[in-house]
Amino acid sequence: MLAFISRNTFNVGRRSLSTSAKQNAKVVVLGASGGIGQPLSLLLKNSPLISQLALYDIAHTPGVAADLSHIETRAVVKGYMGPDQLKDCVKDAEIVLIPAGVPRKPGMTRDDLFNTNASIVRDLADTCAQVCPKAMLGIITNPVNSTVPIASEVYTKRGVYDPKRIFGVTTLDVVRSNTFIAEAKGLDVSKVNVPVIGGHSGITIIPVLSQCTPPVSFPQDERDKISVRIQNAGTEVVEAKAGAGSATLSMAYAAAQFCFSLLEAMAGVPGKIECAYVRSNETEAKYFANPILLGKEGVDSNLGVGKLIDYEVGLLKAAMPELIANIKKGEDFVKS
Q1: Known binding-site residue numbers
Q2: What stretches of the chain adopt beta strand conformation (E)?
C-alpha cells in the first residue's frame, strides 16, 4: 500500500505549518551560496509559506538557484550575483535573512570576525534600508551582538529605522539548549522549551533553565556544566569540524524555524513566540535577547526575562560588560 503525504502542511522540527498562513511571501537570503545560506535556502524552498525565494551572493548563486528550482515545491527561486544585482534581489521583500560573511575557524572567537563581517552587514543593510525598509531583517552574521547594532545604525542614518523589524537570530541557542537538556533528562525533545536570554556569544548566552518547560532540575555542578556547554556549543562544532567550517547546518535549521514563525505571525497567526536579539529596554544593554511575541509588524511585544534564580542573575551580571562593549563596537563602527 502506498502512503500519500499531503503537501498542505510542512513539518520542520518543532513546526507544523499550514499553507493558509501566508500565500505570497517573498523571502530573500543574502549570502545564499555559503555554508549556512545553502541549507537555509533548501529549508525555505521546502515551505508552502513562501512563493518567491530570492538568493544573493557574490559567487555561485545561479547554480544554487538552478539546483533548488528543480525541487517540486511552490516557491519560485531566482538567483542574483554581485553588487549590481543586489537591489533587484531585495525589491518587494517581506523578510530578508543575512547569513553572509566569513565563518569561524578553530581558535577564532565571534569577535575575531568583526572587521570583515561588519563591513558586509553594513553594506547589505544599507541597500535594504534604501530598497525594502519595511521588510523584516533577520541577521545571522556573527558577531550578532555587534552586527545588529550596525544594521540599526545604518537604518537610522537612512531615516527608516523601525526597531520592531530588525532581529538578531539567536534561535540556535534555544535549539541547542532544548537538545542538550532533553538528552540529559531523557525527555522528548519536541516537548522541551528553554528560553535563552542575553546575547549570542560566549558568556552573553544565558540559558534560563529555571524556566524550562517541562520543569527540570540539576545539581549545581551539572547546571554549571550544561550552561557552559550551551555557551560554548559553537566552538564545539568549530573544533569538531577541524577547520572545515562552523555550525552551518544547525544554524540553517534554527534560522528557518525563526523565519517560519515570523511568516505565520505576519499572516496573523497568534501566539508565535521566539527568542531574538532586539532593541530593548529590559536591561542596561540597548540590545538584548529574550522571548518575543511576534506579530504582523514584527515585534508585537517584548516578553522580558521573567523571574530568574540567583544563579541566572549571576550569569546575567557577568555577561553585561561584554554585551555592552559588543554593542558599542558595532555602533562605533558605523559612526566612524
Answers
A1: 31-37, 57, 104, 110, 117, 140-142, 176, 251
A2: 9-12, 15-18, 25-30, 50-57, 76-81, 95-98, 136-139, 166-168, 196-198, 205-207, 273-279, 287-295, 298-302
- Amino acid code (one letter) for 176: R
| CATH of span 14-168 | 3.40.50.720
SS3 annotation, 291-320: EEEEECCEEEEECCCCCCCHHHHHHHHHHH
Active site residue 70: no
Intervals of CATH 3.90.110.10 along the chain? 171-335
6 versus 292: the higher-pLDDT residue is 292
Cell 544554524 appears where?
251
The yes or no reply on domain 171-335 and CATH 3.50.50.60 is no
pTM (2 d.p.): 0.93
**What are residue 66's phi and psi, to 5 degrees?**
-60, -45
State the average pLDDT for the chain: 92
Tell me the CA distances in angstroms from 120 to 83, 91, 114, 190, one per residue in order: 11, 19, 10, 35
DSSP helix/strand/coil, 95: strand
Q: Which three cell numbers stand for residue 11?
A: 513539518
Of 22, 45, 200, 272, the active-site residue reads 200
| CA pair distance 158, 197, nearest whole angstrom | 30
Whether the Cβ atoms of residue 141 and residue 31 lie closer than 8 Å to each other: yes
Q: Which residue positions form the known binding site for NAD(+)?
A: 31-37, 57, 117, 140-142, 251
Place 113 in a pLDDT band, splitting at 50, 70 and 90.
Answer: confident
Among all chains, which residue has been given the C-alpha cell 550578532?
144
What value does the mean pLDDT take over residues 303-316? 97
User: Which of 181, 173, 216, 195 lies closest to 282 in space, CA to CA?
Assistant: 195
Measured between alpha carbons, how far is 8 from 48 in angstroms, rounded to an integer? 7
Within the chain, all domains assigned CATH 3.40.50.720 are found at 14-168
